[in-house]
Amino acid sequence: MIQEFFYICINKFSKMLTIQLIRENPEFVVKRLAVKNFDAKEAVAKIIALDEQRVAIQKDLNAKQAEINALSKEIGNLFAQKKVDEANAAKAKTAELKEDIKTLDKNMSDVAEELQKVLVLLPNIPADNVPEGNCAEDNVVVKLNIGTGVKTPNCRIADLKSEDAKVSGCDNAKLPHWDLAKKYNLIDFELGVKITAAGFPVYIGKGAQLQRALINFFLAEANKAGYTEIMPPTVVNQASGYGTGQLPDKEGQMYHCEIDDLYLIPTAEVPVTNIYRDVILDEKQLPIKNCAYTQCFRREAGSYGKDVRGLNRLHEFSKIEIVRIDTPEHSKESHEEMLAHVEGLLQKLELPYRILRLCGGDMSFTAALCYDFEVYSEAQDRWLEVSSVSNFHSFQANRLKCRYKDANKKTQLCHTLNGSALALPRIVAAILENNQTEEGIRVPDVLVPYMGGVTIIK
User: Most buried in the list 62, 89, 118, 180, measured by CB within 10 Å?
Assistant: First the structure.
């Protein structure tokens, strides 16, 4: 199972991307975000300048309000002393100050709005053990289970030895899953194009049954691990998208229902995590462990070629998501438990897999630390991502205002975590390709009860 090597370099402290942090440690913020290949110099400078404007306006507001308060007391005294002209002059000054305050309030609102626009464009600060890198080849392989024994190379993908990068016994004569799906009448990709468009396949017969079997198996395993099942909506409002960081970062990748201003979810992470938006929990409730099966929708704009063949990249697919809300002190342990859970699923499905610690350039906008799980596709001779398990530290919680009261009744920001457990399309692809025999497709033993006793798809 997952060992301590996943947290080789533990964060000394969790950094929350706040205005206070940016003002006090601008060089730190710029340096750490550079690990994600994000140049934050201009944004950080603008945030500091806008915040200085905000502070100056607030100072002016406070001074004018104090002057109004003083004049209000003076007006009463002047009238009592029959100094009507002076009292009226003081009243006129008060009216003038109130107009000034209205202008300052408008200026404050404009500055705050502009400040928020810049702030939400800054990604999460990566954890200390996130490796530097620009692309997937720079991700670090921390574990390999490929049939020749478990290995822990702990090196970049680009630096893997050839004998470590291949799965033992790979047969390039095997059919890819899109040919197997047609041969055994499991998935009709052309019918999906007719009904909707490319990337919306139709599952048929044993293909549909295999989908349902995987969904039930994954949910059952999550239930055993103590996750409470949620059945959330598959469309969310704009506030939910901003809360978990899909907006504005992935706005172009989400399907948008413009008339109602609602978004189809790219993952159950969005509605499930937003259950705790604007909520103050008790520390005794943590960690909260939820899971959800949903359909997921992604435009996948810009994808092409072999990456989108068959089940490799779809616009609609099924996925089971696990989500945790935790304390900062316990979130590392929660992350390790989630990694172990996903690895256990792949072991039970008897699939060759590897685990990667993502480099800064390949990490999501919101993640502080992320591990990807990939399964090997024998017919395609390539690795397919099937899960990302991420710790967001307090980044999402800060946007969501997801908090808890500790033992001292002090309100703190939670940590949020999530992971795919698992996404179905590429799991199905790997099962079909890796389990093809002369008799048909062998069903992994763990799925046989969920397939009504079927052991071979013929």
Answer: 180
**What are residue 280's DSSP bridge partners?**
403
For residue 267, give the DSSP letter.
Answer: S
Q: What is the C-alpha to C-alpha distance for residues 343 and 368, in angstroms, rounded to an integer?
A: 21
Separation between Cα atoms, residue 454 and residue 204, nearest integer Å = 16
From residue 213, how far is each of 63, 268, 321, 428, 448 by CA, in Å? 68, 19, 16, 11, 8
Q: Enter the DSSP assignment of 109.
A: H
Average pLDDT over residues 220-241: 98
Contact between 153 and 164 under an 8 Å Cβ cutoff? The reply is: yes
Give the torsion sign (CA, 122, 396, 230, 288): positive
For 118, the token pair is 């810049």
CA–CA dist 244, 399 (Å, integer)? 7
Helices (H), 302-405: 331-348, 395-400
Q: How many helices (H) and strands (E) does the chain have?
A: 13, 20
Rounded CA gap, 52 and 317, in Å? 47
| Lookup result for tokens 């007006």 | 75
The pTM of this model reads: 0.88
What is the DSSP annotation of 349-381?
TT--EEEEEPPGGGS-SS-SEEEEEEEEETTTT
Residue 345 has pLDDT above 60, yes or no: yes
Peptide bond into 248 cis (omega under 30): yes
- State how far the Cα of 58 lies from the Cα of 37, in Å rounded to an integer: 35
Looking at residue 2, its pLDDT comes to 38
Amino acid letter, residue 140: V
Biggest alpha carbon–alpha carbon distance for the chain: 109
User: Tell me, what's the pLDDT at 83?
Assistant: 82
pLDDT for 3? 37
Give every CB contact of residue 348 below 8 A, 6+ residues apart in sequence: 221, 444, 446
